[in-house]
Design goal:
Blueprint: H1 2-22, E1 33-47, E2 58-67, H2 72-75, E3 86-87, E4 96-97, H3 98-103, E5 111-119, E6 128-132
Antiparallel strand pairs: 1-2, 1-5, 2-3, 2-4, 5-6
């Protein structure tokens, strides 16, 4: 019985330490990133290397991010991460089915509201994330 109680106490202590150490990761993403508003201009739509069904029906869509504030790039934390030729991700997918591209009328030259999010503190995550509103 004593061993079970000791194991239970150890288990609770272990969970408490894990919760304490990872607690920073449970905040809203906006806490960890600085938002830089701008526009995403579609610059390329290419056949994706991802081709699971052999039909070449997936596309990689690329854009250039243009911040609304022309001086914003001088203040970037991650100057080494370019605003040019960024791949469009939708719901974490970078390989977009041609039917989605067609349905959303995504074409080279189209402009969409976008945000460059730069990591400012906290735990894990990409240093720069682009959020493009394709609607």
């Amino acid at each position: 019985m004593k061993t079970f109680v000791q194991q239970f106490i150890f288990f609770i202590a272990f969970l408490s330490v894990i919760a304490f150490l990872s607690g920073c990761c449970f905040r809203d993403i906006r806490y960890y990133y600085e938002y830089i508003p701008g526009t995403a201009k579609i610059t390329a739509i290419e056949i994706s290397q991802y081709n699971p069904d052999g039909t070449k029906s997936y596309r990689d869509v690329f854009f250039d991010f243009i911040p609304h504030d022309p001086l914003a790039p001088q203040r970037y934390r991650y100057k080494n991460i370019s605003d040019s030729h960024q791949r469009l991700f939708v719901n974490s997918y970078g390989n977009l089915h041609i039917s989605w591209v067609t349905k959303k009328n995504v074409k080279i030259g189209n402009n969409y509201a976008a945000i460059r999010m730069e990591k400012k503190n906290g735990c894990g995550g990409a240093p720069v994330v682009f959020d493009v509103q394709v609607e």
